[in-house]
Design brief:
Chains A, B: Its EC number is 2.7.1.25. Chains A, B: Catalyzes the synthesis of activated sulfate. Chains A, B: One of its GO terms (molecular function) is adenylylsulfate kinase activity. Chains A, B: Pathway: Sulfur metabolism; hydrogen sulfide biosynthesis; sulfite from sulfate: step 2/3. The structure is a homodimer. In chain A, 30% of the residues lie in helices and 13% in strands. By secondary structure, chain A is of the alpha/beta class. Chain A has a domain at 108-291: Rossmann fold. A 5-stranded parallel sheet of chain A has the order 5-6-4-7-9, with helices on both faces. The longest helix of chain A has 20 residues, at 170-189. Chain A is globular. Chains A and B meet through strand 1, strand 2, helix 2, helix 3 and strand 5 of A and strand 1, strand 2, helix 2, helix 3 and strand 5 of B.
């Protein structure tokens, strides 16, 4: 007997209080599964009778809340969220007939061939006024002129939308970075050169985002501009306010910025007006070229 | 005097407990601003001395937690998260010199021209086993063969990543859909034909996602397959379990599915084996062609 149970929920709740979406599985509470518990995703690869004899807990699946089944109910693929994948379809597309579909959806490699580039995340980190956004913009322009598709994730298009529910308390700040990392991963999977431009002052948060991507696909760009220079620029007067004690917890003033030690690219301040965002962006372009990201 | 203050936070907290990211502004608590409160984004367009005489509350900005300034501190652009935008840069790209940058980053129209398509969200809704994923996969294949970039958002790539923190309680189910809608919006903005495949049983949640997109860019595809047919298919045995009372709150059985009344596309079940996902996907392709989404 395999008991599959989760949080008990009353059936037939009102639509507004009991939404029925829920594709997928319970997020794992730790990196290692608990003995006696198997995540639904693990069941996805079980295509023959389950040999597992312990207790299996599936918290929910697409359109459901609570599941309790006996072992015999799960003698085939128990994955609820993978409908249609790996199925073989014989049908016609335009003039082509009897096309066999081994892989259902288009994969990353195919998208990359279409775009003639390789999806990745270019993560620009640095102090306020270090020039992150300017480099991100210059980079997107240069890439566009070369026929490459990039997309910038920044505060404007994320904090106002996806992350509008997040406050600025500690855990929400970490969650903000986590979500940007996850979305950036999706864009990279789509084949896009995704440019994330965030202060992201803590190494732990940046490294967590790096860990989401395949090796080499997370390109950390450190804006290595001395605090003094950023403070002299101070285009918004924020450093002045921080020094005056009117902004608390300002990165670089009374909250730490943990400079990357092994970032893929370091853009250093050379002083003077010649330090254009475009020149800095060209350094990133050279890296992307060298590593083969600008071709499929 | 303009008092700009937010949640008070101790400066110099430990990195693990006081993350310093936070680009952007406090998410608005309602659609209409409270009298006497101005969001930071509103200040972004204020380039001359503020004439506002009331109290301004900025909850946080990039790299900060608490701000308190007097009115005179904000006599220029108070936007913290928009560095580099709309600035005029005279510099060189490759052999081109003195390029003037009116708009900093590449916009949606430019990306669409590059991709020769228009970004949109194709939102496939329907009962479990109604064929959503199969149509999504077929659609992505057909689009790919025509040289168009699409990306599927489904349970696998969202619940395992971005939404892994969400449980299956009511508010988290709604949040799951909200986030998918927001991410889909970003993909559409990137110029991608974004295919979201979710049961999404409640009209309110679907309409909230629709409202995120410009008119016409949210294309609701209703898999109009009778419950009886889905239940007969029952590829995962979920309906059987639901009928046996072993799954509670299963959409269509003991939780409602609110069928769309005005969806852009209705894919109806015609019966028999001829109802291929490819034929259904071709209906969506026809719509996309007719509406001009497959060209820039």
């Amino acid at each position: 007997m395999i008991a599959i149970g989760g949080r008990s929920a009353l059936a037939g709740g009102t639509p507004s209080s009991s939404r029925g979406l829920g594709i997928g599985i319970e997020p794992p509470s730790s990196s290692s599964p608990k003995p006696g518990f198997v995540a639904l995703s693990d069941l996805g690869s079980v295509n023959s009778r389950l040999s597992f004899k312990g207790s299996i807990r599936i918290k929910a699946m697409e359109g459901s809340r609570t599941v309790t089944v006996s072992e015999t109910d799960l003698n085939t693929n128990g994955h609820a969220g993978n409908l249609g994948k790996s199925q073989s379809l014989l049908s016609s597309i335009g003039n082509s007939t009897n096309i066999q579909w081994h892989e259902c959806s288009v994969n990353k490699v195919e998208r990359q061939k279409l775009l003639k580039q390789k999806g990745c995340v270019i993560w620009i980190t640095g102090l306020s006024a270090s020039g992150k956004s300017s480099v991100a913009c210059a980079l997107s322009q240069i890439l566009h002129r070369r026929g490459k598709l990039s997309y910038i994730l920044d505060g404007d298009n994320v904090r106002h939308g996806l992350n509008r529910d997040l406050s600025f308390k500690a855990e929400d700040r970490a969650e903000n970075i986590r979500r940007v990392g996850e979305v950036a991963k999706l864009f990279a999977d789509a084949g896009v050169l995704c440019i994330a431009s965030l202060i992201s002052p803590y190494k732990r948060d940046r490294d967590a985002c790096r860990a989401l991507l395949p090796d080499g696909d997370f390109i950390e760009v450190f804006m290595d501009v001395p605090l003094q220079v950023c403070e002299e620029r101070d285009p918004k007067g924020l450093y002045k306010l921080a020094r005056a004690g009117k902004i608390k917890g300002f990165t670089g003033i009374d909250d730490p910025y943990e400079a990357p030690l092994n970032s893929e690219i370091v853009l250093t301040h050379k002083g003077g007006d010649c330090d254009s965002p475009i020149e800095m962006a060209e350094e990133v372009i050279s890296y992307l070229e060298e590593k083969g990201f600008l071709q499929a």
